[in-house]
Amino acid sequence: MKTDSPFYPHTLKALKESALFGNLAEPVIQDMLLSFRMETWQKGATIMEPEETVRRFYVLISGRVKVTRTNPETGREFILFLLGSGDGFDVVSLLDGRKHNITVVSMDDLEVLSSPIDTIHDWIERHPEFNKAFLPYLGQQLRQISDLASDLALHDTETRLTKLFLQHTTQSNPHPRLKLICDFSHEELASMIGSVRTVVNRHLQELKKEGIITARRGHLEVNELHALGEKLGEHLRSRGKR
């Protein structure tokens, strides 16, 4: 992408605000963009399957994607990551050069940057300062997977759902803001915590009765962030006494 592209201004803004590229000097980002092309994808499209993970690297500019694994026998889906503007995928294959058994699906209409993975390797060799952000970014994803495995092994569904809401909620005025997952279906929420729709629906109804969350026109909102945190604390304390 060249600087005279109509996509350039908002692409540069998204990269400067991202954890991966935000600390790079603008000339370095400009050099990187010369290796990328802009692609647009419609909501629900499959952007990446396992074979593609070793061929291309993508950076999200706008929209969300889910990174999933699916049981081939049952078709049951598990969401490993939710990615938004400024995130890159697949960082595991970028690091080790091996096929990664994941599928990446768009959850909105998307704008993404795309480049052959070998080209990105060459760019990283020319700009080793990128590793200062890349390694912590990768570490964050590894920690997220570690926490997810611990939650599945140690906590019940209600605790995992409460933690999910807390992880994706930020305090803002006048009300807390639920990010990335605010318009998720009950099935999608279940896919993020290793549960099923009927169980998640039951716990959501309990949270609604307590006034902690509300649902309006298919969007979830957190009303009482403090109460949500207290609820998680109660769950963890009760588990510790068993």
Can you describe this structure?
It is a single chain. The chain has 9 helices and 12 strands. It is α+β, with helices and mostly antiparallel strands and 242 residues long. The protein folds into 2 domains: 8-141, Jelly Rolls; 155-240, Winged helix-like DNA-binding domain superfamily/Winged helix DNA-binding domain (Arc Repressor Mutant, subunit A). Helix 6 crosses helix 7, helix 6 runs antiparallel to helix 9 and helix 7 crosses helix 8. The longest helix has 24 residues, at 131-154.
Strand order of the largest sheet: 1-8-3-6
Distance between the termini: 58 Å
- Taken as a percent bin, the fraction of beta residues is 15-25%
Fraction in helix? 40-55%
Helix segment count?
9
Largest sheet: 4 strands, antiparallel
Layout of secondary structure:
Layout: H1 8-16, H2 26-33, E1 37-41, E2 46-48, E3 56-62, E4 65-70, E5 77-83, E6 88-89, H3 91-96, E7 103-106, E8 110-116, H4 117-126, H5 131-154, H6 157-167, E9 169-170, E10 177-178, H7 186-193, H8 197-209, E11 213-216, E12 219-222, H9 225-240
Antiparallel strand pairs: 1-8, 2-7, 3-6, 3-8, 4-5, 4-7, 9-10, 11-12
Task: Supply database-style keywords.
alpha+beta, single chain, 4-stranded antiparallel β-sheet, Arc Repressor Mutant, subunit A
Overview in brief:
By secondary structure, the chain is α+β, with helices and mostly antiparallel strands. It contains 9 helices and 12 strands.
